[in-house]
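Hi support team,

I'm opening this ticket because the web form for multi-chain structure prediction keeps timing out on my end. I have pasted the exact lines I submitted so you can reproduce it. The total is 929 residues across three entries, so I didn't expect it to be a heavy job. Is there a limit I'm missing, or should I split the entries? Thanks in advance, R.K.
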Amino acid sequence: MMSEKNLDLRYFTGFLPLTLLCLFLLYAPLIVVMVYSFNDSNSITRWDTVSLRWYYDVFYGLEAPKFKAAAINSISIAIMAATSATIIATLAATAMLRAGRFKGKSFSFALINLPLMVPEIVTAVATLIFFSAIGFTTGYLTILIAHIVFCIPFAYLPIAARMEGIEGVYEQVAQDLYATRLQAFRLILMPLMAPGILSGFLLAFIISLDDFIITNFVKGAGIETLPTAIFGAVKQGIKPNIMAISTLLLVVSVGFVALSYFVGQMGEKANPTTKPKGD
Amino acid sequence: MAASPQQNSRAMNNNYDGFGVPLILPSWIIIGFFLVVPVAMMLMYSFLTKEFRGGVIWEFSLAAYDQFFFDRGLFGDSPPVIEWTYISIFWRSIWQAGVATFFCLLIGFPTAWFIATRTGRNSTIWLFLITIPYWVNLLIRTISMKFLIRDNGPLNEFLISFGVISEPFHIINTNLAVQLGLFYSYLPFMVLPIYAAVERYNFALSEAAADLYASRTVTLTKVILPAVKPGIVAGCILVFVPSLGAFLAPDLLGGAKNFMIGSLIEEQFKGNAGNWPFGAAASMILLSLVLIVLTLYARHQARGQR
Amino acid sequence: MKKLIKLTASALALLFAVNAANAGGKLSIYHWFEYIPQELLDQFSAEHDVEVTMDTFDSNEAMLASLKAGKLGSYDVAVPGDYMVEIMAGEGMLDTFSKAELPNHSNIMDQWINVGFDMGRKSSIPYQWGSTSFSVNRDDYKGDINTLAMVFDPPAELQGKINVLDSQGELLALASMYLGIPQCTTDRDQLKALNDLVQKAKPHWASFGSDTAKDVLVSGDASVGMIWSGFSAKAREEGANIEYAFPKEGYVVWMDNVVLLKDAPNRENALKFMNFLLEPENAAAVTNYAAYTAGVKGTEPHLSDTVANSPESNPPASPVGEFVQACSQEVQEVYDTIWTNLKK
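Hello R.K., no limit was hit. The queue was backed up. Here is the completed structure from your submission:
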């Protein structure tokens, strides 16, 4: 089936080097920061010896309580926002893919994806104006609400994709065997959906953990999340402890993606309805 | 297990027929109340009178839009001419975003093509490698870039020590730094949709073209490109739109020297200017621009499917 | 799903554990960045059993904007500069206190009691004062630096190596001094000249940054940096070979003040904190950290030598510095236009 090599358009000379260049561009800054986070020197420009000094500083240094509080805010907000968004998105996906026609369906699709379409800075300004106009003092709660909103489409995408791949026949069979709708949903659809729901949750979690612009606009007095705390510190110049925090955050993010990826892989194997991937 | 031919119709079943509205209601409420209402309110604010040093006075006014489009001189009483200040700020943002998109395409297309033409497991691994950096906090990636390209940062030290250059290569606080930052931030957004399009592409088509004596160039431009074009367009939009409203790259890499749309808007609420209606108006104009791009895209998609 | 709920519950538990109330309640501070030592806050926190949280800002205008955008009522105290105290009082953002509520009121230096922006100190206390000018890297430039031309009409070798503060009030005040025109002038020709001056100077400036002002001098990214006196002293301590200028055309002096905000959620603790800062020892601790000069009597014995004798804190008898003025709305709008033109 293969045509002559020189005619095969799959292979362009130069594409492999370009791909490697692409990877290099993506990784070089991160690796440089990771390496410099182990620098013992006070200065970021001079290389001293290798040490874990700045990691110690992150956990026990003078600024440790500030970053700890910020980390707790970030993680608790991310967990709550991702959980709420996942629940809302699962219900929405069920409505969009399992509930036939209903009024406002096409409108709903646009609405769910709206947070993706509105530029972040616009969402931030609009949310600030909204809270200020209704006289709501900004604080922990305002950050949480804003995060739930923009997490919904991110949770929705993998959940809907997964649900689309599951044949409705399983629930129908269950109902034919006298399971109620709720039982069919809980005992058949949900277990099959688990990998999709988990990757939706993880995606929303990372997106919430990542957000700077919107949080910066709607955060209240005395409340920082990790990105806003890091931004505040880094504005005065990149310090070695920021590199250590960055490296830690980087490891956490990558760990989460790897986790979500492997969960997805396991799901692929466990899902009886996925069609085998053929060439 | 082989897929049944009716899979799609079966998947779109109606098991919860009649429950559509209650199931969708939470998303309506949350997004409606906390995004649609705020945007509507922002639209309203853009037509109000500004209060000196921040806030609004509840009186209708077109002053914000007037300020955006008309120049009435330093003292506000010259005959109005077209105001280029904000248009040029918007244009700069569009230009920076455009350049970043162009370079993303330049590097992203070959990468996506290369990955999509690997077989099975290999392609998954390559793809995984491309997506990982996207998951690292954008702020941290921008800081890393700033650290790397500063005048006496690792990049310049490296180049100097190997004798490539003798003077530090000055990138930080220039437009190039902003473009580089945007490029770096959104590169994975370019690769993924193109990858998806190429992966779906049936290479038998190009073989058929070759059998019909089409040259490589002809096959590429007449057969392959039209087929993967939706992926390219999607990638460009995914890079261009967020770049347009970007805030971190201009602020951290560009030296906050020239306003981009994001920093102009931020300045109205958090900085020196304190002009809320104007900030709201600038946000509305940005939102309209983005919605126009997305509508054109949707039209294009619809035409492509027909 | 259950796991998610469990996770959420444990996160909430963590959250409340963090918020476990200190018996003395809370105190919420809105402060300039890199100014007050963390140890001093910890000390106050321990002495009064108060949980202290602090947010930071990088310009008077940014602080005002943020308070106006709905944060008034969530902070107890803020630290505005002189002219900003006047503006905030005009906006009705300040609460007043009686001398009885502040036992250390008598520690205020005499010259800082009857100040134009708060006669008799009824809603603010003096904190630290210093000046705003610029510093020059002496490795890069050997000539005379005591002129504002270094920033507004720099010699060729310094062009493109200048950082200016991202602070409208101070930058335009210095520009006015360079031109020899009064601040907040209403004269149209003078305002036009001001606009032309900054427009012409801008190509020589590499960046606008307040929080980065020290870092760019230390790292050598900038050879000239408009900067606050103490911040410059800190840059010098960190190894930059720089000299702080007292330009002959004049420079900006300022005084930062701790103000009691209206609707402060913890008014009692705010007053305790202000009283705490009026203790000579504590005022000196801030001075030793930020390298400015305290407005409190009796700090001298507690000052470190380097700070007490730093050239930045000991200006020559002449020229004298000037406070930044709060402009009328009419002039301020022209200033805003000039600023936007500058950054377009």
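A quick check on our side: Residues 43 and 85 of chain A are 42 Å apart (CA to CA). Let us know if the file doesn't open in your viewer.
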